[in-house]
């Protein structure tokens, strides 16, 4: 059975690639890389760090899958503000793994441009500094833009955007009423962590959970959502291609 699966896998992958050719494809894909801990437990590991490490290795694979598609931006949800409430040992492990992921992506041959999105002041200074240094080294890269969402909370992002907008407007000497009139959807969008980038066309969540969990709440208002039961460490290129195929078959209405 395993041999048959290995034989059929490339055929199915080739078929999916043909099916999405010349079909509508997303420019921006957002990934909720969920299920690392459950994958580790079900694989028989007592140490969940195996799940986090395997999930980290999957990220560069996924970025490489974007080659040959129309995808220009990928946003990966790696650490939420809620995740920071986990045990000190696990949070420190996540800090180490995520900073290593950013460093690896900055030095690899994917030529991706890395941006950090999140409340970075919630992280230890040395972790933030390491990631920012790696990200800055990719500013001239011409590949896919990769947003690493770390220390991220969707509600906090909106709060930060509104506060930034109000501060900017108040510096102009405007009255409270004038500032209120300038708080528009477009103005808030221009102050988000992802400012200057298109909103995600497609949001993928692994592990079987079917909710956004605070991810890109503003930007994903009209995104197509694709859920899979597959845990992130086990996510394959065929799963990715299936998501793109399903996206190509949907009729986007943008609330209309």
Automatic annotation (TrEMBL):
Substrate binds at residues 35-39, 52, 80-82, 86, 205, 211-213. Its cofactor is Mg(2+). InterPro entries: UPP_synth-like, UPP_synth-like_CS, UPP_synth-like_sf. Keywords: Magnesium, Metal-binding, Transferase. GO terms for biological process: polyprenol biosynthetic process. GO terms for molecular function: ditrans,polycis-polyprenyl diphosphate synthase [(2E,6E)-farnesyl diphosphate specific] activity; magnesium ion binding; Z-farnesyl diphosphate synthase activity. The keyword Transferase applies. It is an enzyme of class 2 (transferase). HAMAP family: ISPT. Catalyzes the condensation of isopentenyl diphosphate (IPP) with allylic pyrophosphates generating different type of terpenoids. Homodimer. Belongs to the UPP synthase family. Z-FPP synthase subfamily. This is Isoprenyl transferase. The gene is uppS1.
């Amino acid at each position: 059975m395993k041999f048959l699966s290995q034989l059929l896998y490339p055929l199915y992958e080739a078929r999916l690639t043909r099916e999405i050719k010349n079909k509508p494809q997303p420019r921006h894909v957002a990934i909720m890389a969920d299920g690392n801990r459950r994958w580790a437990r079900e694989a028989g590991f007592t140490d969940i760090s195996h799940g986090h490490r395997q999930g980290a290795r999957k990220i560069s694979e996924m970025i490489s899958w974007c080659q040959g598609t129309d995808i220009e931006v990928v946003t990966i949800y790696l650490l939420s503000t809620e995740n920071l409430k986990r045990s000190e040992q696990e949070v420190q492990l996540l800090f180490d793994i995520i900073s290593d992921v950013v460093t690896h992506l900055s030095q690899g041959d994917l030529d991706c441009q890395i941006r950090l999105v999140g409340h970075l002041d919630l992280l230890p200074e040395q972790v933030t500094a390491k990631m920012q240094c790696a990200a800055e080294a990719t500013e001239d890269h011409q590949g896919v833009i990769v947003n690493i969402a770390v220390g991220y909370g969707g509600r906090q992002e909106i709060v930060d955007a509104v506060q930034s907008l109000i501060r900017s407007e108040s510096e102009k000497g405007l009255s409270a009423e004038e500032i209120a009139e300038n708080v528009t959807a477009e103005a808030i969008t221009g102050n988000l962590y992802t400012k200057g980038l298109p909103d995600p066309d497609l949001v993928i969540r692994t592990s079987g959970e079917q909710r956004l969990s605070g991810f890109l709440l503003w930007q994903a208002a009209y995104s197509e959502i694709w859920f899979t039961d597959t845990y992130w460490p086990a996510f394959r290129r065929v799963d990715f291609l299936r998501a793109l195929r399903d996206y190509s078959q949907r009729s986007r209405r943008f609330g209309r």
